[in-house]
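Title: Comparing notes on inverse folding

I've been comparing how different people in this forum approach sequence design from structure. To keep things fair, I'm posting one structure and asking everyone to reply with a full sequence. Here's the target:
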């Protein structure tokens, strides 16, 4: 039930929270965009277009044009849960983005975050 609430949130409401988390730690909007584009295959322009739409957070991931196959290399915990053990595929995609933004905010280099 809680998952449905998250899936139904508007992307335009969630994205600024991810951005604020990174910016509080001195990281940039461009870095957050790079992470989101790497993960989903969207362009930066597409992502910014979604900020003026009613696209849900769930649909942002469901409709991702080219999910990066290397996203499966993302390991670790976010919100006390190991991302690699999340059973719901859509929630796992959401937590992947959370984890990457968390790594960004903790000062990791982009090469590490993007699993290069």
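Reply #1:
Here's my take.
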């Amino acid at each position: 039930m809680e998952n449905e609430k998250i899936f139904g949130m508007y992307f335009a409401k969630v994205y600024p929270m991810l951005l604020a988390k990174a910016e509080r730690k001195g990281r940039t909007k461009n870095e957050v965009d790079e992470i989101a584009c790497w993960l989903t295959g969207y362009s930066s322009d597409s992502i910014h277009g979604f900020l003026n739409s009613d696209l849900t957070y769930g649909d942002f991931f469901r409709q991702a044009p080219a999910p990066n196959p290397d996203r499966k290399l993302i390991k670790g915990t976010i919100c006390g849960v190991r991302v690699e053990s999340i059973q719901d595929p859509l929630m796992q995609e959401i937590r992947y983005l959370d984890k990457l933004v968390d790594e960004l905010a903790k000062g990791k280099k982009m090469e590490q975050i993007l699993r290069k």
